[in-house]
Protein backbone atom coordinates (compact mmCIF):
# COMPACT_ATOMS: atom_id res chain seq x y z
CA UNK A 1 0.00 0.00 0.00
CA UNK A 2 1.12 3.51 -0.63
CA UNK A 3 1.65 6.63 1.39
CA UNK A 4 -1.43 8.81 0.69
CA UNK A 5 0.77 11.75 -0.18
CA UNK A 6 2.07 9.82 -3.18
CA UNK A 7 -1.34 8.94 -4.60
CA UNK A 8 -2.30 10.72 -7.79
CA UNK A 9 -5.64 11.87 -6.39
CA UNK A 10 -8.08 14.12 -8.14
CA UNK A 11 -6.69 17.64 -7.93
CA UNK A 12 -8.82 20.58 -6.78
CA UNK A 13 -10.06 23.13 -9.25
CA UNK A 14 -7.16 25.32 -10.43
CA UNK A 15 -6.94 28.43 -8.28
CA UNK A 16 -4.31 31.11 -8.13
CA UNK A 17 -2.47 31.32 -4.83
CA UNK A 18 -4.24 33.70 -2.46
CA UNK A 19 -7.43 33.78 -4.53
CA UNK A 20 -10.67 31.82 -4.46
CA UNK A 21 -10.79 31.83 -8.21
CA UNK A 22 -14.15 33.55 -8.68
CA UNK A 23 -15.17 37.07 -9.56
CA UNK A 24 -15.77 39.28 -6.50
CA UNK A 25 -19.43 39.06 -5.61
CA UNK A 26 -19.67 35.65 -7.28
CA UNK A 27 -19.79 32.22 -5.69
CA UNK A 28 -17.48 29.42 -4.63
CA UNK A 29 -18.80 25.86 -4.50
CA UNK A 30 -18.62 24.09 -1.15
CA UNK A 31 -16.63 21.21 -2.68
CA UNK A 32 -14.08 23.64 -4.12
CA UNK A 33 -13.73 25.46 -0.80
CA UNK A 34 -13.30 22.15 1.05
CA UNK A 35 -10.44 21.11 -1.22
CA UNK A 36 -8.79 24.50 -0.96
CA UNK A 37 -8.88 24.47 2.83
CA UNK A 38 -7.71 20.87 2.97
CA UNK A 39 -4.79 21.75 0.71
CA UNK A 40 -3.70 24.72 2.82
CA UNK A 41 -5.40 27.77 1.30
CA UNK A 42 -5.87 30.57 3.86
CA UNK A 43 -9.23 32.34 3.81
CA UNK A 44 -11.36 34.60 5.93
CA UNK A 45 -14.97 33.62 6.57
CA UNK A 46 -17.64 36.23 7.24
CA UNK A 47 -20.70 34.49 8.73
CA UNK A 48 -23.85 36.63 8.47
CA UNK A 49 -26.12 34.36 10.49
CA UNK A 50 -27.29 35.34 13.96
CA UNK A 51 -24.81 34.88 16.81
CA UNK A 52 -26.37 31.73 18.38
CA UNK A 53 -26.26 29.90 15.04
CA UNK A 54 -22.65 30.91 14.52
CA UNK A 55 -21.59 29.83 18.01
CA UNK A 56 -23.37 26.48 17.71
CA UNK A 57 -21.56 25.57 14.50
CA UNK A 58 -19.48 27.43 11.96
CA UNK A 59 -16.87 26.87 9.31
CA UNK A 60 -13.44 26.71 10.88
CA UNK A 61 -10.00 25.14 10.77
CA UNK A 62 -6.35 26.09 10.68
CA UNK A 63 -5.85 28.81 8.12
CA UNK A 64 -9.45 30.01 8.57
CA UNK A 65 -10.38 33.26 10.28
CA UNK A 66 -14.14 33.10 10.93
CA UNK A 67 -16.06 36.11 12.24
CA UNK A 68 -19.74 36.88 12.61
CA UNK A 69 -21.55 40.06 11.53
CA UNK A 70 -25.32 39.68 11.06
CA UNK A 71 -26.78 40.33 7.62
CA UNK A 72 -29.16 42.93 9.03
CA UNK A 73 -26.19 45.25 9.66
CA UNK A 74 -25.34 45.26 5.94
CA UNK A 75 -28.97 45.93 5.05
CA UNK A 76 -29.06 48.79 7.55
CA UNK A 77 -25.81 50.23 6.15
CA UNK A 78 -27.32 50.20 2.66
CA UNK A 79 -30.42 52.01 3.91
CA UNK A 80 -28.16 54.69 5.30
CA UNK A 81 -26.42 55.03 1.96
CA UNK A 82 -23.20 53.45 3.24
CA UNK A 83 -21.38 50.95 0.99
CA UNK A 84 -21.02 48.28 3.69
CA UNK A 85 -21.20 47.61 7.41
CA UNK A 86 -17.86 47.74 9.24
CA UNK A 87 -15.85 44.53 8.98
CA UNK A 88 -13.71 43.05 11.77
CA UNK A 89 -10.14 44.29 11.49
CA UNK A 90 -8.65 40.80 11.25
CA UNK A 91 -10.65 39.75 8.17
CA UNK A 92 -8.21 39.73 5.27
CA UNK A 93 -9.16 39.20 1.66
CA UNK A 94 -10.30 37.02 0.01
CA UNK A 95 -13.42 36.65 2.12
CA UNK A 96 -15.99 33.85 1.88
CA UNK A 97 -19.42 35.03 3.02
CA UNK A 98 -21.59 32.36 4.64
CA UNK A 99 -25.16 32.02 5.86
CA UNK A 100 -27.56 29.13 6.36
CA UNK A 101 -28.84 28.68 2.81
CA UNK A 102 -26.68 31.00 0.69
CA UNK A 103 -29.18 33.81 0.16
CA UNK A 104 -28.34 36.46 2.76
CA UNK A 105 -24.66 35.74 2.15
CA UNK A 106 -25.09 36.23 -1.61
CA UNK A 107 -26.60 39.66 -0.95
CA UNK A 108 -23.75 40.52 1.44
CA UNK A 109 -21.06 39.36 -1.00
CA UNK A 110 -22.59 41.53 -3.72
CA UNK A 111 -22.62 44.56 -1.40
CA UNK A 112 -18.99 43.96 -0.40
CA UNK A 113 -17.88 43.53 -4.00
CA UNK A 114 -19.56 46.81 -4.92
CA UNK A 115 -17.50 48.43 -2.14
CA UNK A 116 -14.29 47.01 -3.63
CA UNK A 117 -13.87 44.05 -1.27
CA UNK A 118 -12.68 40.69 -2.67
CA UNK A 119 -15.58 38.64 -1.35
CA UNK A 120 -17.48 35.64 -2.70
CA UNK A 121 -20.53 33.77 -1.52
CA UNK A 122 -20.47 30.16 -0.34
CA UNK A 123 -23.04 28.71 -2.74
CA UNK A 124 -25.81 26.99 -0.80
CA UNK A 125 -24.48 28.20 2.55
CA UNK A 126 -23.99 25.90 5.53
CA UNK A 127 -26.60 23.54 4.03
CA UNK A 128 -24.24 22.89 1.12
CA UNK A 129 -21.27 22.63 3.49
CA UNK A 130 -23.07 19.90 5.46
CA UNK A 131 -23.87 18.03 2.23
CA UNK A 132 -20.29 18.16 0.92
CA UNK A 133 -18.71 14.71 0.71
CA UNK A 134 -15.37 14.24 -1.00
CA UNK A 135 -14.00 10.91 -2.20
CA UNK A 136 -10.25 10.54 -2.61
CA UNK A 137 -8.27 7.44 -3.61
CA UNK A 138 -6.18 6.41 -0.64
CA UNK A 139 -4.75 3.25 -2.22
CA UNK A 140 -4.50 2.12 -5.83
CA UNK A 141 -2.49 -1.05 -6.14
CA UNK A 142 -3.22 -3.58 -8.84
CA UNK A 143 -6.81 -4.69 -8.42
CA UNK A 144 -7.08 -3.13 -4.93
CA UNK A 145 -8.60 0.32 -4.48
CA UNK A 146 -9.43 2.08 -1.21
CA UNK A 147 -11.43 5.30 -1.36
CA UNK A 148 -11.54 7.66 1.59
CA UNK A 149 -14.75 9.67 1.99
CA UNK A 150 -14.32 13.01 3.74
CA UNK A 151 -17.09 15.11 5.28
CA UNK A 152 -15.44 18.47 6.01
CA UNK A 153 -18.37 19.84 8.00
CA UNK A 154 -17.98 17.22 10.74
CA UNK A 155 -14.63 15.55 10.14
CA UNK A 156 -16.24 12.14 9.54
CA UNK A 157 -14.27 9.67 7.42
CA UNK A 158 -15.52 6.49 5.74
CA UNK A 159 -13.88 4.02 3.38
CA UNK A 160 -14.75 1.84 0.40
CA UNK A 161 -12.50 -1.18 -0.17
CA UNK A 162 -12.67 -2.75 -3.63
CA UNK A 163 -10.68 -5.90 -4.46
CA UNK A 164 -10.67 -8.82 -6.88
CA UNK A 165 -11.08 -9.18 -10.61
CA UNK A 166 -13.94 -9.83 -13.00
CA UNK A 167 -16.96 -11.52 -11.47
CA UNK A 168 -15.05 -11.85 -8.19
CA UNK A 169 -14.74 -8.09 -7.71
CA UNK A 170 -16.19 -7.21 -4.32
CA UNK A 171 -16.48 -4.20 -2.05
CA UNK A 172 -16.78 -3.39 1.64
CA UNK A 173 -17.65 -0.02 3.17
CA UNK A 174 -16.31 1.00 6.59
CA UNK A 175 -18.21 3.39 8.88
CA UNK A 176 -20.79 4.50 6.30
CA UNK A 177 -23.01 7.53 6.96
CA UNK A 178 -26.71 7.10 6.31
CA UNK A 179 -26.90 10.49 4.63
CA UNK A 180 -24.53 9.29 1.91
CA UNK A 181 -25.52 5.62 1.55
CA UNK A 182 -26.29 6.14 -2.15
CA UNK A 183 -22.70 7.29 -2.76
CA UNK A 184 -21.17 4.01 -1.61
CA UNK A 185 -23.65 2.01 -3.65
CA UNK A 186 -22.97 4.07 -6.78
CA UNK A 187 -19.20 3.97 -6.35
CA UNK A 188 -19.10 0.21 -5.85
CA UNK A 189 -21.16 -0.16 -9.03
CA UNK A 190 -18.79 2.19 -10.85
CA UNK A 191 -15.94 -0.18 -9.99
CA UNK A 192 -17.99 -3.16 -11.14
CA UNK A 193 -17.97 -4.61 -7.62
CA UNK A 194 -20.60 -6.40 -5.58
CA UNK A 195 -21.01 -4.55 -2.28
CA UNK A 196 -20.73 -7.42 0.21
CA UNK A 197 -20.40 -5.75 3.61
CA UNK A 198 -21.25 -2.51 5.38
CA UNK A 199 -19.21 -2.43 8.61
CA UNK A 200 -19.24 -0.13 11.62
CA UNK A 201 -16.13 -0.07 13.78
CA UNK A 202 -18.28 0.84 16.80
CA UNK A 203 -21.63 2.28 17.83
CA UNK A 204 -21.23 5.85 16.63
CA UNK A 205 -22.31 8.84 18.72
CA UNK A 206 -21.76 11.65 16.23
CA UNK A 207 -23.54 10.50 13.07
CA UNK A 208 -26.33 8.17 12.04
CA UNK A 209 -24.88 4.93 10.71
CA UNK A 210 -25.52 3.83 7.13
CA UNK A 211 -25.01 0.08 7.58
CA UNK A 212 -28.72 -0.70 7.40
CA UNK A 213 -29.36 1.74 4.55
CA UNK A 214 -26.58 0.11 2.51
CA UNK A 215 -28.03 -3.32 3.31
CA UNK A 216 -31.47 -2.23 2.19
CA UNK A 217 -30.09 -0.86 -1.08
CA UNK A 218 -27.78 -3.74 -2.00
CA UNK A 219 -28.38 -6.79 0.15
CA UNK A 220 -24.93 -6.35 1.70
CA UNK A 221 -24.41 -7.74 5.19
CA UNK A 222 -24.64 -5.19 8.00
CA UNK A 223 -21.67 -5.91 10.28
CA UNK A 224 -21.02 -4.61 13.81
CA UNK A 225 -18.58 -5.54 16.57
CA UNK A 226 -19.80 -8.43 18.70
CA UNK A 227 -19.82 -6.19 21.78
CA UNK A 228 -22.64 -4.09 20.31
CA UNK A 229 -25.07 -6.66 21.71
CA UNK A 230 -23.98 -5.75 25.24
CA UNK A 231 -24.90 -2.16 24.46
CA UNK A 232 -28.43 -3.15 23.40
CA UNK A 233 -28.20 -3.81 19.67
CA UNK A 234 -31.77 -4.32 18.49
CA UNK A 235 -31.55 -5.26 14.82
CA UNK A 236 -30.20 -8.25 12.94
CA UNK A 237 -26.55 -7.94 12.01
CA UNK A 238 -23.46 -10.04 11.45
CA UNK A 239 -21.30 -9.79 14.58
CA UNK A 240 -17.53 -9.52 14.31
CA UNK A 241 -15.46 -10.79 17.25
CA UNK A 242 -11.75 -10.28 17.79
CA UNK A 243 -9.84 -12.28 15.17
CA UNK A 244 -12.81 -12.82 12.86
CA UNK A 245 -12.21 -12.07 9.20
CA UNK A 246 -14.18 -10.96 6.15
CA UNK A 247 -13.03 -11.74 2.60
CA UNK A 248 -13.34 -9.03 -0.03
CA UNK A 249 -12.18 -10.28 -3.41
CA UNK A 250 -8.64 -11.49 -2.76
CA UNK A 251 -8.19 -9.25 0.30
CA UNK A 252 -8.91 -10.05 3.94
CA UNK A 253 -10.29 -7.70 6.60
CA UNK A 254 -9.59 -8.93 10.13
CA UNK A 255 -11.15 -7.70 13.37
CA UNK A 256 -8.91 -6.30 16.11
CA UNK A 257 -10.82 -5.55 19.31
CA UNK A 258 -9.70 -2.10 20.47
CA UNK A 259 -11.72 -0.92 23.50
CA UNK A 260 -11.25 2.56 24.88
CA UNK A 261 -13.42 5.04 23.03
CA UNK A 262 -16.19 2.48 23.53
CA UNK A 263 -16.12 -1.02 24.96
CA UNK A 264 -16.93 -2.74 21.65
CA UNK A 265 -14.76 -0.65 19.31
CA UNK A 266 -13.05 -2.90 16.79
CA UNK A 267 -10.37 -1.83 14.32
CA UNK A 268 -10.22 -3.49 10.92
CA UNK A 269 -6.94 -4.70 9.45
CA UNK A 270 -6.81 -4.94 5.67
CA UNK A 271 -4.14 -7.23 4.28
CA UNK A 272 -3.28 -9.35 1.24
CA UNK A 273 -0.82 -12.08 0.40
CA UNK A 274 1.58 -9.58 -1.10
CA UNK A 275 4.95 -9.09 0.61
CA UNK A 276 5.41 -5.75 -1.14
CA UNK A 277 2.23 -4.25 0.36
CA UNK A 278 1.95 -2.86 3.87
CA UNK A 279 -1.24 -3.51 5.79
CA UNK A 280 -3.87 -0.87 6.39
CA UNK A 281 -5.66 -0.39 9.71
CA UNK A 282 -9.07 1.28 9.86
CA UNK A 283 -8.81 2.63 13.39
CA UNK A 284 -12.31 4.02 13.90
CA UNK A 285 -12.14 6.32 16.93
CA UNK A 286 -9.28 4.47 18.65
CA UNK A 287 -6.52 6.53 17.05
CA UNK A 288 -6.56 9.76 15.05
CA UNK A 289 -3.78 11.68 13.34
CA UNK A 290 -3.39 14.09 16.28
CA UNK A 291 -5.19 12.47 19.18
CA UNK A 292 -7.14 9.48 20.51
CA UNK A 293 -10.81 8.86 21.14
CA UNK A 294 -12.62 10.22 24.18
CA UNK A 295 -13.76 7.53 26.68
CA UNK A 296 -16.93 9.01 28.19
CA UNK A 297 -19.67 8.73 25.55
CA UNK A 298 -20.70 5.19 26.50
CA UNK A 299 -20.51 5.14 30.31
CA UNK A 300 -20.39 8.85 31.15
CA UNK A 301 -17.91 10.50 33.47
CA UNK A 302 -18.14 7.64 35.99
CA UNK A 303 -16.97 5.07 33.46
CA UNK A 304 -14.46 7.25 31.63
CA UNK A 305 -11.42 6.21 33.65
CA UNK A 306 -12.05 2.50 33.13
CA UNK A 307 -12.35 2.95 29.38
CA UNK A 308 -9.34 5.28 29.33
CA UNK A 309 -7.32 2.48 30.95
CA UNK A 310 -8.55 0.10 28.25
CA UNK A 311 -7.53 2.65 25.63
CA UNK A 312 -3.98 2.74 27.01
CA UNK A 313 -3.69 -1.03 26.68
CA UNK A 314 -5.24 -0.98 23.21
CA UNK A 315 -2.81 1.59 21.91
CA UNK A 316 0.38 0.19 23.43
CA UNK A 317 -0.29 -3.55 23.34
CA UNK A 318 -2.41 -3.92 20.22
CA UNK A 319 -2.22 -1.09 17.69
CA UNK A 320 1.41 -0.07 18.05
CA UNK A 321 2.43 -3.74 18.23
CA UNK A 322 1.57 -3.93 14.52
CA UNK A 323 4.25 -3.33 11.87
CA UNK A 324 5.24 0.33 11.87
CA UNK A 325 4.52 0.71 8.15
CA UNK A 326 0.85 -0.18 8.71
CA UNK A 327 -1.18 2.67 7.28
CA UNK A 328 -3.56 4.05 9.94
CA UNK A 329 -6.82 5.31 8.45
CA UNK A 330 -8.90 7.00 11.18
CA UNK A 331 -12.63 7.52 11.55
CA UNK A 332 -12.33 11.30 11.95
CA UNK A 333 -10.04 14.24 11.39
CA UNK A 334 -9.90 17.11 13.86
CA UNK A 335 -9.03 19.86 11.42
CA UNK A 336 -9.55 20.03 7.67
CA UNK A 337 -5.93 21.12 7.30
CA UNK A 338 -4.66 17.85 8.84
CA UNK A 339 -4.63 16.13 5.45
CA UNK A 340 -1.41 14.52 4.24
CA UNK A 341 -1.62 14.96 0.52
CA UNK A 342 -5.30 14.73 -0.34
CA UNK A 343 -6.14 12.23 2.41
CA UNK A 344 -6.19 11.75 6.17
CA UNK A 345 -3.95 8.75 6.87
CA UNK A 346 -0.42 8.05 8.04
CA UNK A 347 1.84 5.08 8.86
CA UNK A 348 1.84 4.07 12.52
CA UNK A 349 5.50 5.12 12.66
CA UNK A 350 4.44 8.71 11.98
CA UNK A 351 1.91 8.65 14.84
CA UNK A 352 4.07 6.99 17.48
CA UNK A 353 5.36 10.34 18.76
CA UNK A 354 1.94 11.75 19.70
CA UNK A 355 2.25 13.49 23.06
CA UNK A 356 -0.46 11.40 24.65
CA UNK A 357 1.37 8.17 23.79
CA UNK A 358 4.46 9.25 25.73
CA UNK A 359 2.50 9.36 29.01
CA UNK A 360 2.65 6.54 31.54
CA UNK A 361 -0.59 4.71 32.30
CA UNK A 362 -1.70 6.91 35.21
CA UNK A 363 -0.92 10.17 33.42
CA UNK A 364 -2.60 8.89 30.24
CA UNK A 365 -5.78 7.98 32.11
CA UNK A 366 -5.83 11.33 33.91
CA UNK A 367 -5.46 13.25 30.67
CA UNK A 368 -7.80 11.19 28.50
CA UNK A 369 -10.54 11.06 31.14
CA UNK A 370 -10.39 14.78 31.85
CA UNK A 371 -9.51 16.55 28.57
CA UNK A 372 -13.04 16.29 27.27
CA UNK A 373 -14.68 18.77 24.90
CA UNK A 374 -18.46 19.23 24.82
CA UNK A 375 -20.23 16.02 23.87
CA UNK A 376 -21.49 15.71 20.29
CA UNK A 377 -24.90 17.24 19.67
CA UNK A 378 -27.80 14.80 20.19
CA UNK A 379 -25.34 11.98 20.88
CA UNK A 380 -27.68 9.95 23.11
CA UNK A 381 -30.41 9.88 20.48
CA UNK A 382 -27.89 9.10 17.74
CA UNK A 383 -26.51 6.16 19.75
CA UNK A 384 -30.03 4.85 20.34
CA UNK A 385 -30.81 5.14 16.63
CA UNK A 386 -27.61 3.32 15.69
CA UNK A 387 -28.53 0.50 18.07
CA UNK A 388 -32.01 0.25 16.55
CA UNK A 389 -33.68 1.39 19.78
CA UNK A 390 -35.06 4.61 18.24
CA UNK A 391 -35.90 5.75 14.75
CA UNK A 392 -35.25 8.97 12.89
CA UNK A 393 -36.34 9.84 9.39
CA UNK A 394 -33.72 11.10 6.96
CA UNK A 395 -34.41 14.78 7.65
CA UNK A 396 -34.27 14.28 11.44
CA UNK A 397 -31.07 12.27 11.14
CA UNK A 398 -29.37 14.87 8.99
CA UNK A 399 -30.32 17.65 11.38
CA UNK A 400 -29.30 15.68 14.48
CA UNK A 401 -25.72 15.14 13.34
CA UNK A 402 -24.93 18.69 12.21
CA UNK A 403 -22.02 20.34 13.94
CA UNK A 404 -18.56 19.21 15.12
CA UNK A 405 -18.21 15.54 16.04
CA UNK A 406 -16.10 16.12 19.22
CA UNK A 407 -15.13 12.44 19.45
CA UNK A 408 -11.45 13.10 20.26
CA UNK A 409 -9.97 14.25 23.53
CA UNK A 410 -9.05 17.93 23.71
Automatic annotation (TrEMBL):
What GO molecular function annotations does the UniProt record carry, in alphabetical order? metal ion binding
Stretches for region Disordered? 1-27
Q: Tell me the organism's taxonomic lineage.
A: Archaea, Methanobacteriati, Methanobacteriota, Stenosarchaea group, Halobacteria
Q: Where is the signal peptide?
A: none
Q: Which SMART domains match?
A: Lactamase_B, RHOD
Keyword Iron in annotation: no
The residue ranges flagged as biased composition, category Low complexity, are: 1-15
Q: List the InterPro entries.
A: Metallo-B-lactamas, Mito_Persulfide_Diox, POD-like_MBL-fold, Rhodanese-like_dom, Rhodanese-like_dom_sf, RibonucZ/Hydroxyglut_hydro
PANTHER family the record matches:
PERSULFIDE DIOXYGENASE ETHE1, PERSULFIDE DIOXYGENASE ETHE1, MITOCHONDRIAL
Q: Please provide the record's keywords in A-Z order.
A: Metal-binding
Entry keyword annotation includes Lyase? no
| Name this polypeptide is given | MBL fold metallo-hydrolase
* Domain named Rhodanese: residues: 39-137
